[in-house]
Each structure stands twice: as structure tokens, then as C-alpha cells.
Specification:
Elements (H helix, E strand, L loop, with lengths): L1 H19 L5 H18 L11 H9 L1
Helix pairs in contact: 1-2, 2-3
Length: about 60
């Protein structure tokens, strides 16, 4: 999930720079990726005992 999101936003940054002459800063890119991953994790519905049940908690542990 993180790899796909990172590739998407790096590609989007490149296109923005190439076609709109608008630069997206690295810190802004990091915030976009973090927000997209958090939104995706929150949208998933896990049943009790699923192996990815604590994924959002683990994401916060890694990113904070």
C-alpha cells in the first residue's frame, strides 16, 4: 500500500512540475502520502482477529 501510494504521488509531482510548472515540495509530498495511507487504512473494515486489525496503530507508531 505504501509503495503504490508513493509511486502515485511521485508520478503526480513529476506531472505537476512538467505540465503546470508548479513544484510540490518534499515535505508537502510526505504529508500527501501520509494522509492517503491513513485514509486508506481507515476505509478498510477488518473483522475481529484479522492479521491487519492493528494496522492504523502500527502506521502511527512508524510515522510519529
Amino acid at each position: 500500500m505504501l509503495f503504490q501510494t508513493t509511486v502515485y504521488y511521485v508520478w503526480k509531482k513529476r506531472n505537476s512540475r512538467r505540465h503546470q510548472q508548479r513544484e510540490i515540495q518534499g515535505d508537502q509530498l510526505r504529508r500527501f502520502i501520509d494522509k492517503a495511507v491513513r485514509n486508506r487504512i481507515c476505509s478498510l473494515r477488518y473483522t475481529h482477529g484479522h492479521k491487519l486489525e492493528g494496522l492504523l496503530r502500527r502506521w502511527f507508531t512508524v510515522t510519529l
